[in-house]
Amino acid sequence: MQNPKGACLIIGAGDDTGAAIARAFAHEGFTACVVRRARHAEALEELAQSIRDEGNQAAAMPADARDEDEMIALMDKIEAEIGPIEVAVFNIGANVMFPVTKTTTRVYRKVWEMACLAGFLMGREAAIRMEPRGRGTVIFTGATASLRGGASFSAFSSAKHALRAFAQSMAREMGPKNIHVAHTIIDGAIDSSFIRENFPNVDELREHDQILNPDHIAQNYVMLHNQPRTAWTHEMDLRPWKEKW
Q: Does the structure show a pLDDT above 90 at 24?
């Protein structure tokens, strides 16, 4: 169904942050086009249906964000069937931890493909469609690893550094064309299923606001899209009030 307000594409629409971003933009009137690989198709449709149950619009669109042909076809489908892509959010995590001596070429390449190559493909294809219209917002989710490489995070930090550099280059090129490109630094643990399963003190952290709330992250993404162009933010750091810098 065509949406006159257009679409928000979320690459990496998982159960937590990605889902919150999808819900937030759907609440703004966009059709949330949620994307994960085909093996997550059932969960993806459940997310889309939960958004529709709230009275908003969403479409589950399984695709491999690392595959150039699939990304081109995905964006063509959205533009033809739903409406112009007004917002594109890249939210693939790819956070893995291996000592450098145990990091295989396969692991390093896969992390780079997920956290960097896929971001490039989304950014390029979004720009191709947004540039003729002279508007749009592209947001890339970064991490602490975007700024500094930690021990045992050689693959992840390399990919996140590269994604940040790509976002900077894209912002300098597309900003003067009225396309807002932003990069966020999510610095701290997110109240996610992974953290809840692996950290015993999540309830205490949540009680004292010491863990990132996915809904609050999403609110900041919507704010970035709605910013007046006289005062655009390119990079935004988000961390709980007690997180170490």
A: yes
